[in-house]
Amino acid sequence: MTLAVLCGSTGNDLDPGTARRLADELTAALAAAGATTVAPVDGLDVAGQLREIARLAAGAAEPLLLCADNLVGHPSLLRTLATEPAGRSTALVVAQSGGDLREERGRLVLATEGTTRFLGAISIAPADLPILVAAAQAAEVSPEAGGATGLATTTAQRDTIDVLLRALLAAGLVPIATRVRLLHAERVHTPAELEAARAAVAAVDEDAALLRLAVKEKDDFFTTYAVSTWSPLVTKLCARLGLSPSEVTGISVLFAGAAALAFWQASRPALIAGAVLLFLGFVLDCVDGQLARYTRRFGAFGGWLDTMADRAKEYAVYAGLAAGAERAGLPYAWPLAITAIVLQTVRHMTDTWYGALHDEAAARQSVGTAGNTDAGGGVGARLSRASNRVQADTGSAAYWLKRIVVFPIGERWALIAVLAALTNGRVALAAVVGWGLLAAAYTLGLRSLRSISMRVGVLDTVDTSRHRDDGLLVRGVLGAAKVKAPLVCTAVAALAALGLVIGLLAGWVPGGTDWGRWASGDLRVELIRAGDASVWLVGTALLVLGAGLAARTRHAGPLDWLIPAGLRAAEYLMVVAVGLICAVPPPVVYLLLFVLALDHYDLTARMEKGAPDATAARARLGWDGRVVILVLGALGGVATVGELVLAAVVGGSFLSAAVSDWRSGGS
Fold first, then answer.
1. What are phi and psi of 518, to 5 degrees?
2. CA-CA distance, 439 to 445, in Å (whole number)?
3. Which CATH superfamily is 219-330+372-454 part of?
4. In the CATH scheme, what architecture does the domain 458-612+619-667 have?
5. For the whole model, what pTM was predicted?
6. pLDDT of 275-304, one tens digit each?
7. Residues 6+ apart with CB under 8 A from 619
8. What is the per-residue pLDDT across 302-340, written as a single tens digit (0 to 9) for each?
């Protein structure tokens, strides 16, 4: 359900009858977009309209769709606004040099020499309605807000919807940009403009345009040229068959699972078949999102399911490649798969929190506080400006190189498919690890410099302990210390765990299982030695747990967005270290890492997709508790059993919570 307000415009030369017919058309379009109530306020002056909008917003508990009464465009654009996937506020815009807006990661901020122009329609999410009330009240009385007593002289800036947008941005709203792209929309003021606008709308095949618009505007190189050129045909077929996006996601999981099984067989025909199945699974992975955008069938848990399925499919394929290589007698495959899953999960954690940091910077920039990544000097600011220039030069060699070097999912799956078909699973995994390390170094270095220039924090705006995945030990005991510098504590933990793993592999730490014996399957089943290995393991575990000493300190530093990724790295490396010291079979180590990764993706996917979290308060074992259990299992000589039990507990908790939340609030 959505409430819509049809805002009056000023300076129109349309005769009353024509203006009324246009308003009736917009009312019908708003109703088709999902508005159950359309409230016209065109009979009031600007101040009166603002007062009425504030009143309606104060009493609303549903999205509020605001639209100028002189907008002419395809009706589906209003539906697009009303069905924003994550339920965020969004505004209808068109790319235009010299506009007063600019996009920052798809979000709109004010700009003196912008590249985007507002078209007079905006949907306000329920969570942002208080901002709308305050902005409308401020715009009514404050010249500084661009309100009724301080209006500019141009027609567009006198319209209520424009005054309100500037007040909203000044109040801290950072709406998502909904661009018209292949469709058409404009505001008209004269009969000639109206006639031209209607002709422009009629000249576009709306359904064909919507099908093409279902493809992401800026996707990765492989996806753009090898998938999106023909995937809309599959999307159209799925729509005709009545498939839901989640059903397509399920089919893509089946394809990826079949690919993993084919890779496990390891024969040349099986590897080729696996490569084909993996490619087709990736096509369907693109189609589920396209189908959702084409049919406007979105749900928070649908987005969550898509994210979780992507990660589960990819990591199942890693396992299939490793098992197949082992089947073919090729050593080191499982260690490569373990390295790949650790590296990719930690990278994804940095992606999530850097994105959140960037959004927070854009929000603070909109209200004139810290966070302008383009202002000032310094390396980070210069990198930000250079990155924005490259991103604006769509299709150039630099643009595609920038998108390819970060090793996105399309490129990962293409690399795996080609190398698996032509060589073997071990080569494919080695390539994933090699390119992944390069991408990690590139993104981490540049993002760290840019985040310093933003001068904002992001972890202090959320439930820090939840996204750290702290358990009872940290929340109840270690966190009481309130040590400062949480990033330093986390970095020490991650580096200590990494150092232990490297020491075991290099032979610097006595008593461990060397990488070659671990990889070849020549494994021992014995108690951990009471000597040096135990000392090293316990000492490293204490350093890792030291990251919990700073848990209750405010995580507001410009680089503190790295903390969740650092904690994931420390925990996962401890799993690997115990596996090396106690000769835990590599598939068991991989299984535990797999379920830990899904549990951590669950946290971030819910945040990114706006999914409700009915189980946020459920008791979690936490990374700290799991590290303690790992060490105790190793010291007690039951490391393999301990890792299997941990996998069962974490996996069971994740699955039961997901099913419970799906039934209670999913769609």
1. -65, -45
2. 10
3. CDP-alcohol phosphotransferase transmembrane (TM) domain (1.20.120.1760)
4. Up-down Bundle (1.20)
5. 0.88
6. 999 999 999 999 999 999 999 988 777 888
7. 472
8. 888 899 999 999 999 999 999 999 999 999 999 999 999
